Amino acid sequence: CNSISGARSRREQVFDGEKANFLVRELRKNFDSGRTKSYEWRVSQLEAIVKMLEEKEEEITDALYKDLSKPQFEAFISEVSQVKSSCSEALQELKHWMKPDKVKTTITTFPSSAEIVSEPLGVVLVISTWNFPFLLSMDPVIGAISAGNAVVLKPSEIAPAVSSLLVNLIEQYLDNSAVRVVEGAIPETTALLEQKWDKILYTGSARVGRIVMAAAAKHLTPVILELGGKCPAVVESDVNLQVTARRIIAGKWACNSGQACISVDYVITRKEFAPKLISALKEELEQFFGKDPIESKDMSRIVSPNQFARLVNLLDEDKVSDKIVLGGQRDEKKLRIAPTILLDVPEDAMVMQEEIFGPILPIITVGNIEDCYRIIKSKPKPLAAYLFTNNEQLKKDYVENISSGGMLINDAVIHVATRGLPFGGVEESGMGCYHGKFSFDSFSHKKSVLYRSFDADSSMRYPPYTPQKEKL
Ligand code: NAD
Fold first, then answer.
1. Catalytic residues
2. pLDDT digits (tens, 9 = 90+) for 447-465
3. Which residues, other chains included, contact 261 with Cβ-Cβ below 8 Å and sequence gap of 6+?
4. Is residue 208 in contact with ligand 1, taking CB distance under 6 Å?
5. Mean pLDDT throughout 297-308?
6. CA–CA distances in Å: residue 118 to residues 92, 115, 447, 458
């Protein structure tokens, strides 16, 4: 009897297709009631998130430490404060965003007026990932709420502390008739993906992006795919060397140990300049993380044994292991890999074929800086492309020649936090975008509305189409 009830309670806990369907129907009923559409509801939820951030900052940074050993300062700067600023922007701008956009009409419809009305899509799904598990969960949720939708969030099982904290926080602070969290891995995500959603925002790998898009296609559900790729940084020899080195380090090792979708994946520079760049990187790395960086408290660890093994595998490939010019040390128990620089690994090495997503930086040298175009274009379009130079013509050419999700000249990563810029990929690095007003627009339907009066009704447009009408 005990084992039967045990099996039953286990079954009750499983989040399967039936439970997913029930959840979506419940949220749809609440969405259809109009509850989430009002300005007041949206503001109440955004204010609740602000309150949550104020009251639970420590719990959030603690959970990020548990999942990634993310330094508290980094956790605050790159996750908590980013969510805070998304919320503040939405609260500040929401009235303006919600206002219909007036559009000029022409003589054809005279007299008339026209506008574009932003209406919520309905019930949306956000599937997020583990590297910035709080930010990449909450930021899309803020967009979905701002646009007046009901939303289900599925955080990543690879960051379990943040995932379970999100369940508690959202239960405690937000309106659960319209905002919910479902924890889980592939089975739970699959159950969710079988349902009909009005939009899905997915953050993660292109491999799973394809699964998400195929599932969405069955219901004609639009998707935003926030994927990754190999983000290049081209460094010309005319740069301020120290600033360049610091910014590359900040965009690689001080950014979640390189486990970031827009982290610098590899550097391209001139052959004769590479030794100078490497020595500046070594010097600044020591300033940042000390003589024994693997022990540094200011750098996150690798998220999981699987990811650790994948990275070690990249480093230990025969054609790579003798190209290490800095680092290479690893500590399997602590899941840590020292900042590692590789010089001139062959292009067919795995480390140059797949997204690194970790603390390894290959530097590729070229005869002419313009050779960078061939290398970058031989790979799928990246999520971000960086260039360090003072040469105005090179800047212009790079912007014109390289297609990428975003681009940043003379720095790395920080374009993601620049208000007013959309964030998203192109081709293999993703589709659609979000952040700020772009989140609001991505989670809204833009409805065209034309208003006419009964005046000036011309018989010209109606049959019978007489020869006189045809002449006109
Ligand atoms: P992942 O695709 O394995 O996991 C992401 C989410 O998908 C998780 O919630 C997971 O539960 C779910 N998932 C995994 N396998 C699934 C399956 N078979 N069916 C349904 N759902 C499944 O990705 P990852 O390894 O966590 O993330 C790494 C990738 O994400 C990198 O390529 C990185 O560049 C990219 N990324 C992109 C952004 C961005 O904003 N563009 C941000 C962070 C990471």
1. 226, 261
2. 999 999 999 898 888 999 9
3. 131, 203, 226, 227, 228, 229, 383
4. yes
5. 96
6. 17, 10, 6, 32
pLDDT in tens, 183-192: 999 999 999 9
Q: 17-63, pLDDT tens digit by residue?
A: 999 999 999 999 999 999 999 999 999 999 999 999 999 999 999 99
Mutation to probe ligand 1, out of 208, 255, 415 (largest number of atoms < 8 A from CB)? 208
213 touches ligand 1 (CB under 6 Å): no
- The Cα-based distances of 52 to 49, 60, 87, 447 in angstroms read 5, 10, 11, 34
Which residue from 423, 353, 347, 410 is spatially nearest to 384, judged by alpha carbons?
A: 423
Mutate which of 203, 307, 423, 431 for ligand 1? The one with the most ligand atoms within 8 Å of its CB, which is 203
Question: Is the previous residue joined to 160 through a cis bond, with omega within 30 degrees of 0?
Answer: no
pLDDT value of residue 9:
52
> What is the spatial distance between Cα 72 and Cα 128, in angstroms, rounded to a whole number?
21
